[in-house]
Structures are given as C-alpha cells and as structure tokens.
Amino acid sequence: MVLSSSLLSLSRLFQMKFKDIELPHGHTTPKHMIPRVTLLAILAILIFAITPVSYPFFSYSSLWKINKYNKHQSSHDGKENLPSAYVEKCDIFSGEWVPNPKAPYYTNTTCWAIHEHQNCMKYGRPDSEFMKWRWKPNDCELPIFNPFQFLQIVKGKSMAFVGDSVGRNQMQSMICLLSRVEWPIDVSSTNDEYFKRWKYPSYNFTMATFWTPHLIRTEMADPHGPSNTGLFNLYLDEFDKKWTTQIEEFDYIILDGGHWFFRPMVFYERQKIVGCHFCLLKNVPDLTMFHGYRKAFRTAFKAINSLENFKGVTFLRTFAPSHFENGIWNQGGNCVRTKPFRSSETQLEGTNLELYMIQLEEFKIAEKEGRKKGLKFKLLDTTQAMLLRPDGHPSRYGHWSHENVTLYNDCVHWCLPGPIDTWSDFLLQMLKMEGITSATS
C-alpha cells in the first residue's frame, strides 16, 4: 500500500512538472524537453530508494497472518496435543486414581447401551463415589476422553472388540461416552447379541463385537462339568472362524481374554487330547489353565498375522483382575469396597501376575512377527489401573435380589458409569500417539 501510494505521488509530480510537454507527434514543443530514457532512469532510482522503506509493512502483514494461523492451531490443539517426545516418554499405565468431581459423563438413565448386569444404580447400589475418579499417570496427565476428538480420529474407520464379556463391557462404555456426540445405529447382520455392529452415520465409523471367550475354536463338552460351570474342549491350534474370517476389513482390533480360562477345560492339539485344566478325566494330565491361556493367545495372534489383506492396528487389552474376597466367585466371594486402592496397598501377584506375564510374552512374539508384514501391535495395558479398583464392580447390584442368577456377586465386570470408562481415556491417547508417530516416521 505504501509503495503504490508513493508511485502514484511520483506520477502526479511528473505530470505537474512536465504538463506542457507534448508527445513527440504533438502540435507544441515543450520549453525543456527531457528524454524518455532519462525519465525512466529517474523513476527506477526512486523505486529502488522507496522499496526498502516498505519492507516492514509487508513483513508485518505476513507475520500477522502466521501468528493468526498459529493462534488458530493452538486454540484447537489445546494442552492435549503434547510434543511426541513428551507423550512417548510418559508411561500412561503407571499411576494412581485421583478424585474427579466432574465425573461421570453420562448416567444409567441417559445411556441405553448399559447391559442390565452392569447397571448398578438401577439395582440399588447405595454409593456413587466409585464413579468420581480419574487415572493420573505418575509422570504426566491423561486427558479425559473427548468424544468429538475420538470420532474425528476414527472417521471413516472401523473397530472390532474381540474377546469375552469384559470386552463387550468396554464397547458399551464407549457407546455411552460417545452419546454426547451421536448415537449409533444397529447395522448387525444377525440378531445374535454376541455379534453386534454399530455405525455412527455422521462419521462413517463402525464398532463391532465378536464373542470368543477363549479366542480359539471351542466346544462345550458338558454343560455342567466338574464345577457346574461347564466343561469346554479347546482346540489350541485352531482358529475361531467366527471372528477370524470377519476382521480383515477392520482398521482396529481390540483383543482380550482371561476369565473363562478359570473354568474346566480339555486341551486338544492336532485333534488329539494333550491335557486339561481341572477336567478330572482319567489318564488326562492337568497342564493347568496357563498352558491353555498361552496357546490360545499364540493362536489368536497367529490368526491375525496370517490375514492376507489386514492392514490395521491390533491392541491387546491386558487382563483385568477380579476382586472376590472371602471366597471364590461361586462360594460366597464378594466385593464390597467403596474406594480404590493406592498402588502401595496391593500388588499384582499369583494367578493374576502369571496371566498378565503370559500375555506380555505372547504379545512380544506376535509384534515381532507382525512387524515383518508391516502390521502394528499395541499394548493397551489396563491391568495395573484395574487392579486398584475393587470398588468398581456390580457386586450384588447387577440384578434384583430375588433373581436366581449364575454370577450372584459380580466382581468381574464393571459398573457403568465406572472405572472401565477410563479405558477410553487410554485408547484415545494411544490413537493420538499413533497419529504423531505416523506423521513423524
């Protein structure tokens, strides 16, 4: 603007100075004729003299635009988008539960997706403090789940929850958290509640659940079995095609498994019995639950790595311990605590520790094999956080007191709203980290 006005002023000055001068073919001749070359030279000198003066004005305009853009980006990113180095160095899975008076972010009356057995408030749970905690990592902050941000990240993608009823519990929690943005529509191809698909039309995002409590091909050999909870035949080297033939199209797989391996099982390999866990069959060695658990995860990971067209990311959601006290689940055990543990008050040990370590070991093997094919495996390590939440289970508030149910005191699943909502905090942070890693690699 300054340069244009300066040139305009110069033009007017020359017009006034030489207004009596006609063009070469005019009728009059000026008294003092200045050659055109000389005039152009004078103009050029003046332009070069004035231009540096105008630089600050041009620079200010550009800086203003850049600063405006940076402010716009900052206002959208907020504190949640941390530098990749900071995010990657922080172990979000090691920490403590701290009070969060803002929670919960939905209720049992605002979310229809809550399974009856996890609807603790409906069935009269008298306390509500178990809903008012958040997970605080030791070395950083873990942002509370942002449903808008999550749906933007997964826009046009799909996510499969593969495993047992605790995995379904996780998906229902996520549906409730996302309800602040949009409700999904049922696009299931079957009426089977164990194989549901939900779609968020505005974001073209699909979630699906695949029921496979043992992760591999399984048959019920005896509905009662030694402990009246059934005896199952596990084919340790065979895929469960109910899910392995369906997940190739998915962008994310969340794999889990655990509690069903406490039940009596007979182990098969190459169609022959190789052992069992508490089957009480003659001449069948008891290889313990750990043998079946390891082989099941190994086969499940092998199934994923063998998919020809799968290009997605697999999350292993680690074992979430139960909290039965004063007896096991079918012998009077219950969970009546109303506050989380501090990390100094309990530790992972015994069976829980063994199951967790098996998962980590098989995960590392699968991750190494998957890397050869360009596949990604991520550890959604919920074990430590959930070990500290004995207060978050339905206990006897998963049904009416007069009902005859198998799991009378439920210390396995999680109340909704409740601590399982934090799994979405973890997952979203991991998705953001995955985006940062992809962008910088």
UniProtKB/TrEMBL annotation:
GO terms for cellular component: membrane. Pfam families: PC-Esterase, PMR5N. It is found in: Membrane. Residues 142-430 form the Trichome birefringence-like C-terminal domain. It comes from the Eukaryota. The keyword Transmembrane helix applies. The keyword Membrane applies. Belongs to the PC-esterase family. TBL subfamily. Keywords: Membrane, Signal-anchor, Transmembrane, Transmembrane helix. Residues 88-141 form the Trichome birefringence-like N-terminal domain. It is a single-pass membrane protein. This is Trichome birefringence-like N-terminal domain-containing protein. InterPro entries: TBL (IPR029962), TBL_C (IPR026057), TBL_N (IPR025846). The chain crosses the membrane at residues 39-58.
